[in-house]
Design brief:
Number of helices: 23
Radius of gyration: 28 Å
Distance between the termini: 64 Å
CATH topology of the largest domain: Polyamine Oxidase, Chain A, domain 2
Strand content: 5-15%
Number of domains: 3
Mean pLDDT: 87
Structural class: alpha/beta
CATH architecture of the largest domain: Alpha-Beta Complex
Largest sheet: 7 strands, mixed
Low-confidence stretches: 1-29
Length: 646
C-alpha cells in the first residue's frame, strides 16, 4: 500500500482530482452524494429501459397485422409467371430467394413479416419443391413429390411462419383403427410385421415382448435416444449463433453424447446395442432400422443420430399429414408472402448471381437476360447448386466432403375401390430386405459381410427395400372414396440411372409423363421396377389385384433432377453421414452465411437437416440470422401472442 502511494502517477491523479473539484466548486460531501445517486439510479434506469423495450416488443406483437387466408385461393397462387419485359426496369428487392421449397418459402415469409420486400424465384412451373403435388392421369389422383408424413407440430410452425392468428393448414395425426401409424415388414410377407404404435414407451414395451432376451439393451437404446434428441434440439438452436460460438458449444461437455452417437454410423451402433448373429438378433436390428428409408441414406452411411430420430425420436411427437394434401403448405406461404407485397414467380431459372465491385451479392441474372437486383441473395438450392451460380473464384475455398444423398425410384399407382375394399389405411409400410434367405440380416456384419440393405443399394434387383404409402387415405379432405392413390418408393443411387440422362435439360412440366420421351433401355429399367414394386404391393396388401390398379407411373432420380434439379437426383440434398454433424470443418463449410461472398446466405436441408419440417425450420433460422438478434426477440413475442393470446 505504501509503495503504491509513493508512485508519482498516484499523486498526479489525486492532484488532478483535487483541482477539478476546486474548479467546479464541489465539496467532497456533495461528490459522495452524486456517486451514491448514480449507483442507485443507474441500475434503475437499465431496468426501466429493459421494461420499455419489452413493452414495445409485446405491443408490436399484439398489434402485428396477422395473415388472413382468402376464403377461396386464387388459381394464380403459386403459378404466377414473371411478365416483365427484359427492357423493363424491375424494382429492387431487399432479398431475393432462389428456390421455392419449404426452406425458401419459409425464409421469405418470415422476412416479409418484418417489412422486407422479397422476391422468390422458382425454376419449376409450380412452387413447393419437394412438397408440391402432381397427377399422372385422373385429376382425382394426386401424388406427393416428397412429403409422405410430417408431425402434428408442423401446423404450429407453419402458423408462425405465415404469421396467422389460426393455423391455415391443419396436420391431424395419422393412425389406423388399431393405433398403428408405421408398419415394418420383412421381405417374406408371411413373417409377422412390427406395428409402431404410440410413443417410445409403447414401442419399447412391444419390442421387449417380442424379444425378451434383449430387454436391457432395448431400454438402454431408448434412454440414449432421449438424451441425443435433447442435444439435437440444442444443435438446431445453435445454428442461430455465430460459427465461433457454435463450435465452442460443440466442443463442450454438454455435447459429449452428441459427438459420441452422431459421430458413428447406424450399422456400427446397432451392432453395439444388439450384438449377436442369431436370427433373433438380426430380426431385432432389422426392425429397429426398419424406417431407414426415411433418413434417405443406408444405415452403413447414415449417422446413428438419424436412426435415433426416426425410431424413438419423432414418435414422441407422432405422425401427421396436411389436410388437403402437402401442396397446401407452400401455397399458403406464397399467399402470405404476396399479401405482404412480396413476389413469387415460377419458370424463372437463375443462371448466375451478380456481384458488385466489392464482391458482394447484389442480384441475379435469369435465363433470357432478365436482371433483378437486391440487397442480399438467399439460396435454397443446396450448397453445390448454389456455388455453381457464383462467378469463378468466389466460391468458398473448401467444398463439403459430404456427398449427395441417393434418390428414389417411385411407383405412383391409382387404385379403384374404397380403402376397406382394398385393405389399405393411413399407416405406412416399410419392407426390409431381410428374409429367411439371409437369416433376416438387413445390416450385415462389422467384418465386411454385407447385409440386405447394402446389397440392395448396389443392385436393386436384390430382394426388396420398399416403402408403401397411401396419400389419399392420409388426407382427411380426400373427397372421392372410390379412387385411392398409392406410392411405392425405393432408394436408388444416381449411378444406376445417370447413364440415361439426356444431353440437354428437358423443358419444365406441371405433371408427370408421358410428355417426356427417354431411350428404350431406360424404359425397360422402369418396367422392371414397376413389376417388382407391384409384386411387393400385392404381397403385403393381398386384397389389391390387377383389377383394382388403374394407372401406374414410375419415377426415378432422373425425374427428381428434371423437376427439382437437386444435384444428381438426390432426395434430401447432402447425405446424412456422421462427418456432417460432428466434423468442425464440415460444419464451418455448411454455415448459413457464405463467408466468401458478402450478403450471400444459404437456407435449406444442406445447412441444417433433411425433412420437410426441418427444412422449413432452416428457412426460419436463416431469416432470423439475416435480421439479427432483435428480430429473434420480436419473433418469439409474436409466437407467444399468436399461440397463447390471440
Amino acid at each position: 500500500m505504501l509503495e503504491t502511494l509513493r508512485h508519482p502517477c498516484v499523486w498526479t491523479v489525486l492532484a488532478v482530482a483535487v483541482g477539478a473539484m476546486a474548479y467546479a466548486q464541489i465539496d467532497v460531501l456533495n461528490l459522495w452524494w452524486m456517486m451514491s445517486a448514480f449507483a442507485v439510479f443507474m441500475p434503475a434506469s437499465v431496468v426501466l429501459l429493459v421494461l420499455a423495450f419489452a413493452c414495445t416488443v409485446f405491443y408490436e406483437a399484439f398489434t402485428f397485422s396477422t395473415f388472413v387466408p382468402a376464403k377461396k385461393q386464387s388459381r394464380l397462387t403459386g403459378n404466377r409467371k414473371m411478365t416483365f419485359d427484359v427492357s423493363c426496369r424491375l424494382p429492387e428487392y431487399d432479398s431475393i430467394i432462389i428456390g421455392s421449397g419449404p426452406a425458401g418459402l419459409s425464409c421469405a415469409s418470415v422476412l416479409s413479416q418484418f417489412g422486407e420486400k422479397v422476391l422468390v424465384l422458382e425454376q419449376h412451373v409450380v412452387t413447393g419443391g419437394g412438397s408440391h403435388q402432381f397427377i399422372t392421369g385422373s385429376r382425382e389422383a394426386q401424388f406427393d413429390a416428397g412429403l409422405h408424413f410430417t408431425v402434428p407440430q408442423h401446423e404450429v410452425l407453419h402458423q408462425l411462419v405465415v404469421g396467422a392468428a389460426k393455423p391455415p393448414v391443419r396436420t391431424p395425426p395419422l393412425a389406423d383403427s388399431d393405433g398403428t401409424y408405421e408398419r415394418i415388414a420383412f421381405a417374406d410377407a408371411c413373417e409377422e410385421p412390427f406395428c409402431v404404435r404410440g410413443g417410445p414407451k409403447e414401442i419399447a414395451t412391444d419390442l421387449t415382448q417380442r424379444f425378451p432376451e434383449f430387454a436391457r439393451q432395448i431400454a438402454e437404446y431408448f434412454k440414449i435416444c432421449h438424451i441425443v434428441q435433447l442435444r439435437f434440439a440444442l444443435w438446431l438452436v445453435s445454428a442461430l449463433f455465430p460459427m465461433t460460438l457454435r463450435i465452442i458449444l460443440l466442443r463442450s461437455p454438454l455435447f459429449y453424447a452428441w459427438r459420441t452417437f452422431a459421430g458413428t454410423t447406424t450399422t456400427v451402433a446397432l451392432h453395439s446395442f444388439f450384438p449377436g448373429t442369431s436370427a433373433a438378433a438380426n430380426k431385432l436390428r432389422s426392425i429397429v432400422s426398419g424406417l431407414w428409408i426415411d433418413t434417405g441414406s443406408p444405415p452403413s452411411r447414415a449417422s446413428f443420430f438419424m436412426q435415433l430420430a426416426i425410431f424413438g425420436g419423432f414418435q414422441q411427437l407422432g405422425a401427421a399429414y396436411p389436410a388437403g394434401g402437402s401442396q397446401r403448405l407452400p401455397l399458403s406461404m406464397v399467399e402470405a408472402i404476396e399479401s405482404r407485397d412480396g413476389d413469387v414467380f415460377v419458370q424463372c431459372m437463375v443462371e448466375r448471381i451478380i456481384l458488385d465491385w466489392q464482391g458482394a451479392a447484389r442480384g441475379v441474372v435469369m435465363s433470357g437476360g432478365r436482371v433483378v437486383r437486391a440487397k442480399r441473395i438467399i439460396s435454397g438450392l443446396g450448397w453445390r447448386k448454389t456455388m455453381k451460380l457464383l462467378p469463378n473464384g468466389f466460391a468458398p475455398a473448401r467444398s463439403p466432403l459430404t456427398q449427395q444423398s441417393c434418390g428414389f425410384a417411385m411407383a405412383n399407382v391409382t387404385l379403384r375401390g374404397s380403402a376397406e375394399e382394398l385393405g389399405i389405411g393411413q399407416a405406412n409400410t416399410w419392407v426390409s430386405p431381410a428374409s429367411t434367405a439371409n437369416n433376416f440380416d438387413a445390416l450385415g456384419s462389422l467384418d465386411g459381410l454385407e447385409g440386405g440393405i447394402d446389397l440392395f443399394m448396389k443392385d436393386p434387383s436384390y430382394d426388396c427395400a420398399f416403402g408403401i404409402t397411401f396419400p389419399s387415405c392420409k388426407d382427411t379432405l380426400h373427397d372421392n372414396p372410390n379412387i385411392n392413390t398409392c406410392q411405392i418408393l425405393a432408394p436408388c443411387e444416381w449411378d444406376h440411372v445417370s447413364k440415361f440422362r439426356p444431353d440437354e435439360s428437358l423443358p419444365p412440366a406441371r405433371h408427370a409423363p408421358p410428355h417426356l420421351t427417354r431411350n428404350q433401355s431406360y424404359n425397360r429399367l422402369k418396367e422392371r421396377w414397376c413389376k417388382r414394386m407391384l409384386a411387393a404391393l400385392k404381397a403385403h396388401y393381398p386384397k389389391i389385384t390387377d383389377n383394382e390398379i388403374v394407372t401406374v407411373n414410375i419415377s426415378t432420380p432422373l425425374s427428381i433432377e428434371t423437376y427439382i434439379r437437386s444435384e444428381k437426383g438426390s432426395a434430401i440434398g447432402l447425405d446424412v453421414t456422421p462427418k456432417r454433424f460432428v466434423d468442425e470443418e464440415e460444419i464451418r463449410t455448411l454455415d448459413m452465411k457464405v463467408d466468401s461472398v458478402h450478403n450471400m446466405w444459404l437456407c435449406g436441408q444442406d445447412v441444417l437437416m433433411c425433412g420437410q419440417v426441418l427444412a422449413s425450420l432452416a428457412g426460419v433460422l436463416c431469416a432470423l440470422r439475416v435480421l439479427g438478434p432483435l428480430a429473434w426477440v420480436r419473433f418469439c413475442a409474436r409466437a407467444v401472442a399468436l399461440r397463447l393470446l390471440l
